[in-house]
Write a structure and sequence with these properties.
Structural class: alpha/beta
Strand content: 15-25%
Low-confidence stretches: none
Shape: globular
Mean pLDDT: 97
Largest sheet: 7 strands, mixed
Radius of gyration: 21 Å
Bound molecules: pyridoxal-5'-phosphate
Strand order of the largest sheet: 1-7-6-5-4-2-3
CATH superfamily of the largest domain: Type I PLP-dependent aspartate aminotransferase-like (Major domain)
Distance between the termini: 47 Å
Amino acid sequence: MAMDEVERRLREAYDKDFHFEDGHVLGSMCSKPEDIAVKYQALFAEANLGNRGLYPGTAELEEELIADISGLMHLKGGWGQVVGGGTEANITAMWIARNLSGKKKILAPESAHFSMKKAADLLGMELLEVRLDDDYRMDVDDLRRRIDKDTAVIMAVAGSTELGAVDPIKEVGEIADDVFFHVDAAFGGMVLPFLEELEMWSEEWDFRVESVDSISTDMHKMGMATVPSGILLLRNREYVNLISVESPYLTSKRNIGLAGTRPSGAVAGAYAVIKTLGREGYRKIVRSCMENTRYLVEKMGEIGLEPVIKPVMNVAAFRTDRAEEIRREMDRLGWKISTLRNPKAIRIIAMPYVTKEVINDFTEALSDALKSL
Ligand SMILES: Cc1ncc(COP(=O)(O)O)c(C=O)c1O
């Protein structure tokens, strides 16, 4: 194809996509990445930390990025790697837990992300769902009843996909004393530290809880970085041996983790954004998202929709038996929202691009739609 024909085709496809800046995407957990992240992801497009010896500069950036995120999550002297996202991080954590224990049972809350099902399937493990309490957090009593000699791992969620609920990590940690304990903070990892600093929320949820062995967080969600930039942190760097193989023909003799070639431009992107925003920048973003979440709850209340839980973070779900019908109608009108299965609700993520103006336009459109449904 001629260059201008290829470009026309690419532009046409781009225009079919939804874009965060259009202000109609209310159901995505991904960032609209900061410009600096996009710029440096492009510069490092050929970097591949799977062949580390060729990219000593990118490797330094990854080490600094991991050190910064470790600091944020109160981890000293552990190990970390940039991975493709929350799914890869969860699978890798389960892989470690299985190889460490030789056991198969995963105990995870009913609210766990569907990536846990993939992890169990791939690793030949058994996923057992722990009930939730009235606040949609893992029920610690049910967990206590379910744990047994075959349990390989307990996982908890710090910021559930559907509601942004945070499991009681400290209490779970007391039960998980002798068992591998993974915390999935894919969304919450770049929210909770700043909510704490803003004194808007306070619970120990990270490596301050001594039995926490691993935490995952995504820079491409509330980290304001580009896709794909997930992070997996481990308290004990020895565990790396459980997920590495010899890689004789590469510049590094051991290949660690799931991916061979690692798309490492995102490392540079995440590095650029974290260093330019700093804690103050993230605090500002989180504060504004929480203000907008409160505003959203208020506006939804005015049209008769109440939240399932008082939002802990910038994820809000509103009860309605007609959730699927509403989603379809709003979709027809160009609004992208999502739904929950249980309880029936529509869900909105107040990402930074979901401004008060967007909320006004959306609730007005929703109010009209509800009258005609
Ligand atoms: C809590 C949680 N864990 C894991 C994931 C999976 O992340 P990814 O889509 O980056 O693989 C998500 C995605 O929304 C999530 O919310």
